[in-house]
């Protein structure tokens, strides 16, 4: 019969935060199929640094002047020539929507 060693315990304890973070992460809305995007859209997204999930809740596509659509899920972006984006996404061209 084998007994767990201290090393096994420490490895398992060290991995616990990563396991919790992986299960707690919210999935972004599925607004488009990345594999179906034309090369021009993929290149433009890459050049603008677009990501589906923003790390800053104040700087999200849903709060951007270039975003049109439902701030709850999906919409389109003028910077991406009307390409579909997640409202919770972000890119380097973010501009705060005016309060008008």
List the helices and strands and how they pair.
Blueprint: H1 6-24, H2 39-48, E1 67-69, E2 74-77, E3 83-86
Antiparallel strand pairs: 1-2, 2-3
Radius of gyration: 19 Å
Distance between the termini: 72 Å
Structural class, from secondary structure content?
alpha+beta
CATH-defined topology of the domain at 26-86: High-Potential Iron-Sulfur Protein, Chain A
Biggest sheet strand order reads 1-2-3
Shape: elongated
The SSE order reads HHEEE
Mean pLDDT: 82
Any overview of this molecule?
β2 (74-77) and β3 (83-86) form a beta hairpin. The termini are far apart. The protein has a domain at 26-86: High-Potential Iron-Sulfur Protein, Chain A. The protein has 2 helices and 3 strands; from the N terminus they run ααβββ. Strands 1-2-3 form a 3-stranded antiparallel beta sheet, with no helix packed on it. It is α+β, with helices and mostly antiparallel strands and 100 residues long. Residues 18-25 have low confidence and may be disordered.
Summary keywords:
High-Potential Iron-Sulfur Protein, Chain A; 3 strands; 100 residues; 2 helices; alpha+beta
Short description:
With about 100 residues, the protein is an alpha+beta fold. The chain has two helices and three strands.
């Amino acid at each position: 019969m084998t007994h767990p060693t201290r090393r096994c315990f420490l490895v398992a304890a060290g991995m616990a935060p990563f396991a919790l973070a992986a299960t707690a992460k919210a999935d972004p809305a599925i607004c488009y199929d990345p594999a179906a995007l034309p090369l021009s859209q993929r290149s433009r997204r890459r050049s603008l640094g677009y990501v589906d999930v923003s790390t800053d809740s104040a700087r999200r596509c849903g709060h951007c002047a270039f975003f049109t659509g439902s701030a709850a899920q999906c919409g389109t972006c003028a910077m991406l020539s009307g390409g579909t984006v997640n409202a919770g996404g972000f890119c380097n061209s973010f501009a705060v929507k005016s309060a008008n």
